[in-house]
Specification:
Shape: globular
Radius of gyration: 17 Å
CATH architecture: 3-Layer(aba) Sandwich
Strand content: 15-25%
Number of helices: 12
Strand order of the largest sheet: 3-4-2-5-1-6-7-8
CATH superfamily: P-loop containing nucleotide triphosphate hydrolases
Helix content: 40-55%
Number of strands: 8
Order of helices and strands: EHEHHEEHHEHEHEHEHHHH
Structural class: alpha/beta
Largest sheet: 8 strands, mixed
Distance between the termini: 26 Å
Number of domains: 1
Mean pLDDT: 92
């Protein structure tokens, strides 16, 4: 049975795509059959982030009926499987949102887990992506404006009948200026299920077009992503690492 998990955020730049890619990579390293789908059709980033900006077929081709989504999947050298969207400007102008949900659903039965990188914001593009999901993780940084925007994201998602399982705090510095996890939980009325630390290893991985979980598996951020990935499939990270050995 396939589990579809969407990653959402109120705004760009909070690390949503990085989270989606690294959760998918962690699942692959656990031996799970997982694929990361770029459902951000207007400003896609998965292919760019992983050094594969142009591919023969893309999610845009699938939503326009030119190709099956199952033939738009590529395996990155890190082991993570991705279905990238096209970076071509003409594709972004007419993304075909009406079919996005059914295209994502077409992956049911092909993988254990489908990670959907949704578009940022509260518009139709985000709603089309998350409506295909069984559950959603909301990514935010631990500052008041971002958390306030996350409230709107959660309300929009749940208004469309999809469950938000929790919030992942990204770029956590643990300094006196940022909100603490319990403060975020109080504002959002949802559990904080992960805290991904600010980590220069992420920037190094982005520069090399690699997931940090693959390039620096013992980095603090990599551990946090692996713990989150394990949580999302109902396992304990310690158990999974022992299985891999």
């Amino acid at each position: 049975m396939t589990k579809i998990i969407a990653i959402a955020s109120a705004k760009g730049g909070v690390g949503k795509t990085t989270a989606a890619v690294n959760i998918g990579t962690a699942l692959a390293r656990f031996g799970r059959e997982a694929v990361v789908v770029d459902a951000n059709l207007s400003t896609p980033n998965i292919g760019i982030q992983l050094g594969a900006p142009i591919t023969p077929s893309s999610v845009h081709d699938a939503v326009k009926g030119k190709e099956s989504i199952r033939k738009c999947i590529y395996t990155h050298p890190s082991g993570v499987r991705i279905a990238p969207a096209s970076i071509a400007l003409h594709q972004a102008k007419n993304p075909g949102l009406k079919k996005l949900k059914s295209v994502i659903k077409d992956l049911e039965g092909t993988h254990e887990v489908v990670i959907v990188d949704s578009a940022p914001g509260l518009g139709d593009e985000m709603v089309s992506a998350v409506s295909a999901a069984d559950e959603v993780v909301v990514i935010t940084t631990a500052d008041l404006p971002a958390v306030t925007d996350a409230i709107k994201t959660i309300e929009t998602i749940e208004a469309n009948g999809v469950t938000v399982v929790g919030v992942a705090l990204n770029r956590v510095r643990n300094d006196k200026h940022e909100m603490k996890a319990d403060e975020v939980e109080a504002m959002l009325e949802r559990p904080v299920i992960a805290s991904i630390p600010e980590d220069e290893n992420i920037r190094a991985a982005l520069k090399k077009s690699e997931p940090v979980v693959f390039l620096s598996p013992d980095a603090p951020s990599s551990t946090a992503y692996k713990e989150l990935a394990a949580l999302l499939i109902g396992q304990k990270y310690e158990v999974l690492t022992k299985i891999k050995k």
